[in-house]
Amino acid sequence: MRKAAISWSAGKDSSLALLRAREAGINIRTFVTMCEPDGSSKSHALSPNLIEAQVERFGGDWLPVRVPAGGYTTAFAQVLAELAASGHTHMVFGDIDLQAHRDYIEPMCQRAGLVALFPLWGESRQQLANEIIARQIRAIVVCVDTQYLDQRYCGLEYNQAFIENLPDCVCPCGEDGEFHTFVMAAPSMSSPVPLQVGNTRLVPSAPPMNPTLLAFQDLSLVNPTLSGRDGT
Prior knowledge:
Layout: E1 3-7, H1 12-23, E2 27-35, H2 48-57, E3 61-66, H3 72-85, E4 90-92, H4 99-112, E5 115-117, H5 125-134, E6 138-145, E7 157-158, H6 160-164, E8 179-185, E9 195-204, E10 213-221
Parallel strand pairs: 1-2, 1-4, 2-3, 4-5
Antiparallel strand pairs: 6-7, 6-8, 6-10, 9-10
């Protein structure tokens, strides 16, 4: 059985990629999340204890990587090398069809001695969205780019009604960065992540993103001191 890590955003696409990879017999224990210097996850701005609780419920070990300003490529290359040195042979990604991102990821994995796997690659975005819902992967929208969506979409559950109410220009998977999600329950999780939904914050984007306002949904654990494995 191949030993693999997964690039983990904590969102719905990562979760579907995880389920498919495990169903294909790939042994995934290590969940790698690229983080800001303060420990929050990149793009999603999730707190470390949220992701740690989620990964624990998926039966994995969380590997956060704090990225200094301007140091993403170096930090990514370093963690890939560490994974290869610790016996990992594959790295799983939840990308769907952004070729430029794959062209960045795949050679870096190859240089580290890892095989990059893309379980969702090239499939219909709409069909993947339908599969996420059909598999009962429950997610909450934690970030929206307000140039595409009103901030009121933040905090909504990602479900059929959410997809049907999206503007025509917005991908149902948010593959172009229109929105991001956090998975709170999925078939292979030991129990749902107990969430407290807080305020919505507006934050200006930072380079290399185009100038825009990002809306972030504050989330916290209901019982942050309790283990995820005991189902509490």
